[in-house]
Structures are given as C-alpha cells and as structure tokens.
Design goal:
440 residues; mainly beta; Porin; 16-stranded antiparallel beta barrel; two-stranded antiparallel ribbon; 23 strands; 6% helix; globular
C-alpha cells in the first residue's frame, strides 16, 4: 500500500507543478507590466511577481569501483552507468518587494538502483519578510545554512563538477538534501553579509548504536545554531537565495572573505573507557575566501579556498559515495565499502581549494572553463591523511543554462593494516560526462 500511495503522491506533485506552470504562463498581466522568460509580473511597478525555474543534471560515468564491489551480486572492478544526478522544479513569488515565498521539488541520484523508488521530494518551502533595510526574517524547510560558503551550494552554478561532501557535513543525516526545518535572520550592512539560522534537526538515519566511536545520538536532539558572515570587497552578491554560486561566468568582480560555525548540543554519543554513555555536541567551524576576477580579452579567474575544523566527537567518520552504484562487497572488500564511497567527513581538520580559468571562444558566445579542486584532511580515526582530487573542463554553450562538463575524480581507498591501523592502500578514479540544463 505504501508503494502505491507514494507513487500516487509523486504523480499528484507532477500534475500540480504542471498546472502551476500553465497558470503562470497564462496569468493575465497588469496593464504595462513586463514578462521575462518564466516570470510573470503581477503589478505595473514590478514589485510583485511569480516565476518558475527548472534545473537538471544528467551523468554518464565510468567508475573504477572500490575493491570487492558487487553489482547485482557479481564482482565488478568497474562500471558504466547513466543517471540523473539532480533535478529541481522551483516556484517562487515576491509580494510588494518585501515578502518572498519559495517552493522546490526535486531529487538526487536517480540511477539503476533507485529509479523505481526515486520519488520527487518536497525540498524547500519557506517564507521570508524584510523588516528593515538590514534585516529579513524567515522560516520553513530551506537550505539556509552556516559554517561555510558551500554549506549552501548553488548546485546548478558550480565551478567544479560536484560539491565536495565534507562541505555539507550532515547531508541526508539530520537534514533533507541539505534542507532543514529552520528559522533564520539575514541581511546586508554595507560590505557585510550575514545569516543566522536556528534549526530543528531531523532524526538521524545513520546507525545510532553506541560504541567507543562517536555516532549520532538516539536522544532528544538539541537545536542547531549556524552563523555565516562574509565581507565583500568589490561587488556584492545577492542574498535573496540561501545558495552561493561557484562561478558567475566571468561577468562579476568579486572577492569575499567569510567565516562561520554550526553547533548542536546533545547530537552525538559514545562510550567512554568505563562503558558510560557520553553525549556530546557537534561543533563545526570554517574560514574561507572566494573570488572571481575578470581579465582582459573576455577571460576570468575563479578561485575558492578554506580551512575547516569539525568536531563530531571521538573518531567520527562517515563514508560517502554520491550517486553510488555499488551494492555490497565480497571478501576482497575494504574499509571504503562498495562502489565509489570513501571517508569524506570526520572529526578533524581539512583544507580545500578550487580554481578555474575561463575564456570566450573568439566570435562565438560559447565559453571554456577548465578547473581543478582538492581536499586534504587529517581525520582523527585514520592513520593516513585523506586526499581527494577533481579536475575537468566546463563547456558553457549558453552560460549555466546549457553546460557540458567533462571531469576526472581521484579518491583514496582505506583499509586496515596488519597492525590494525587504517591506512591508504590504493586509489581509484571516476570519469564523468555531465549535461546541465537551467531554465528560468
């Protein structure tokens, strides 16, 4: 019964979005009002409007699987797949320049393992209202997060192929694809931009069994508090949306220095040496720098770097494989597990960078943007550092509205040594071809 009910719900959601789409396209505009793409202005002074946005990312990927990976019960050293990495349907409205409403439906990682159960979810539904020039208040389920710039990444305007998972440290653990049930304050004062978020976390989905290694606690959770402050040296970015762009295609001059934190009491637990249950907090801190600098002859340099300290309790470590195709391992399996998973998030220190260089093809509107990124982490539970690299090139056919990305990813594989230490034993690669569509 649950199967049919969930699919009926998904069908109704699609019908609702389609009807809303038709409604907005056919909405009778006020005399003299403007219409721009999928946005309809409801007042002659353009102070009120409603609109639609559609984004999607399709992947073709060849993955070198972790040792011992099983695909439908059969050992597989590599695997080629086609998947939907992300899809989003968003409706939004602004009323009298002060009140904003946003609703987003979507899903991630629809691949051969998940296609029959990949129901479209409600991701965003939130409302905010500007009380003062420097203060807007809001609430609902949203992506307003703190800690760092890409704790809330605009995934349809990224420099790299994908967001590094450590920057979204509780993804699908105590949130819903980044989104949380939150109230927030935000604003801009001169060159300063701030956000302060109070969230009620979802119940954790990870195994909450107690051991000497910290895991998410199966107790009444504390409130999450997150804050992010940035100083913008040149142009100012919009804070209308919670999400930060990874690139502006060389059309903006930006330099932003940011710092933030996230904290939650009664979030984790573990056993001490006396087998007592100890409940601890989550404490995350970061400082980062983002820049995009236009250069002569239609060129631009984009970069991001940051330092991150995460405390999830003793020896916390999370294995993540985005859009994973593996299902189980055989006797040759390693600590990494199956498919493309690797130790991405943990208690410890991380430094990260990404950079890209963009130029326009002469006498054409298309642009080319090669990029690189790297993560270096010292996690408490591991005896070797974690290093992860990604490189590739974006072919901007029509900016971010139509983009092709070819990328290469290199990840570590960890396993226990003869002395019982967790060390890097080998490395694996993935090659991804992505097409991105963004219509608004």
């Amino acid at each position: 019964m649950h199967f049919f009910e969930s699919h009926k719900l998904s069908e109704n959601i699609f019908v609702g979005v389609f009807l809303l789409f038709l409604f907005l396209l056919g909405f009778p505009m006020a005399s003299g009002a403007q219409q721009q793409a999928l946005r309809v202005y409801l007042e002659t002074d353009s102070s009120s409007y409603a609109g639609l946005r559609l984004t999607g990312q399709l992947w073709m990927r060849l993955n070198e699987n972790n040792p011992g990976t099983l695909i439908n019960g059969q050992a597989s050293s590599s695997f080629f797949d086609i998947s939907v990495r992300r899809i989003r349907f968003q409706t939004y409205a602004r009323i009298r320049e002060k009140t904003n409403i946003t609703m987003t439906l979507g899903q991630n990682n629809i691949n051969y393992l998940t296609a029959r159960s990949g129901e479209i979810r409600l991701l965003d539904f939130y409302v905010d209202h500007r009380l003062h020039q420097f203060l807007t208040v809001g609430g609902g389920q949203s992506g307003w997060n703190g800690t760092s710039r890409y704790a809330a990444p605009l995934t349809s305007k990224m420099l790299t192929l994908d967001v590094s998972p450590f920057m979204i440290p509780t993804v699908n653990q105590t949130d819903n694809i980044l989104r949380k049930l939150s109230a927030y304050l935000k604003g801009q004062v001169g060159k300063w931009d701030y956000r302060w978020v109070f969230s009620r976390p979802y119940a954790p989905v990870e195994n909450t069994g107690i051991s000497a290694i910290s895991t998410f606690a199966n107790v009444k959770p504390g409130m999450q508090t997150a804050f992010y402050l940035k100083h913008q040296f040149f142009e100012k970015e919009s804070n209308h949306s919670p999400f930060h762009s990874g690139t502006y295609d060389g059309e903006r001059k930006l330099l932003a220095l940011g710092m933030g934190f996230e904290r939650q009491n009664d979030a984790m637990w573990h056993l001490n040496t006396k087998a007592d249950t100890i409940t601890t907090f989550i404490n995350l801190m970061a400082i980062d720098l983002f820049g995009e600098l236009p250069l002569p002859k239609n060129k631009a340099l984009t970069f991001y770097t940051g330092y991150f300290y995460y405390d999830f309790g003793p020896d916390y470590l999370r294995l993540i494989g985005f859009n994973n195709v593996g299902r189980g391992v055989n006797e040759k399996g390693t600590f990494n597990g199956s498919g493309n998973s690797w130790p991405a998030i943990g208690t410890g220190h991380t430094v990260y960078f990404q950079g890209g260089f963009l130029w326009k093809i002469p006498e054409r509107k298309e642009k080319i943007q090669p990029f690189i990124s790297g993560q270096y982490s010292q996690y408490q539970r591991l005896d070797d550092p974690v290093s992860y690299f990604e490189g590739g090139v974006n072919f901007l056919l029509n900016g971010q509205a139509s983009k092709i990305t070819l990328a290469f990813q290199n990840r570590p594989v960890f396993d226990f040594s003869g002395e019982g230490k967790l060390i890097e034993t080998t490395r694996r690669n993935a090659f991804v071809l992505q097409y991105q569509l963004r219509i608004e």
